[in-house]
Amino acid sequence: MSTESADGHPALWLHATCSMSFDVTIPTPMVFMLRPRSSPTQWVASETYRLVPSIQVIEFTDRFGNLCQRLVAPVGTFDISTSVDVMLTARSGRSRTSKWGALVDVPSVPNDVLTYLLPSRYCESDRFGDMSAAIVENYEPGHAQVSRVAQWVHENIRNTPLSSTYPVSAIEVNQRREGVCRDLAHIGISLCRALCIPARLVVGYLHGLEPMDIHAWFQAFVGDEWVTFDPTNPDCREARIAIAHGRDAADVAIYNQFGPLLLPSDMQVSVERRAGS
Hints:
Elements: E1 11-24, E2 28-35, E3 42-52, E4 58-61, E5 67-73, E6 76-89, H1 129-135, H2 143-156, E7 158-159, H3 170-176, E8 178-179, H4 181-194, E9 199-206, E10 215-222, E11 225-229, E12 240-246, E13 255-257, E14 266-273
Parallel strand pairs: 7-8
Antiparallel strand pairs: 1-6, 1-14, 2-5, 2-13, 3-6, 4-5, 9-10, 9-12, 10-11
Helix pairs in contact: 2-4, 3-4
């Protein structure tokens, strides 16, 4: 495998897996979101997607461009396992232009990015105006402000794995002062949108995460591009694979089920660097 991307920038390879097992008592409609898509920063070279028992799957692309797998889980033990090999382009290989990290004025925000300026189900950005202004006071608009937001969340909201088993809003998390990675990202997104900086939630795989699980972070649109920020660990430089993105957790659940609550009886995630990276 090559260690350079098509444009000559340094690249590395990750191999990620995710497996889930469900004990299904009645036929249950479900929508999964477990297939990463290729993008300018990641190339999906190969993947596997296995269901036991084998059943019909209908795949569609949602409004954000994420790949979704629609099915009806049969009664009994239902297993789903996926794996993916991805080549990542190192962001550090980019040259910094005069626009790098600059605030994009609202009139110049692309039409398809405008939605990430608005309040959403778990990111009530219209309630964070004064708080966001105080946090970034004296910071340069754009990347510097978003970095400050991520650092503030990291310092003030405790990252506690398993502390919330369902999504809660940014306001609730700010009151609790603790949450999981998804919750910290929701506050970061809300604070950015309150500053008129588009921000979106991303879920995927993070190499070196402890304990290993599907991870959530956020991206902000600065300097005419989406830039990654992770308030659970602002200094983290580990490689990551994006599976899906959206306004908040309502858009990027790795699975949704319809009917009586159905949780996995077992779930395993792994992320490894491939030889030659």
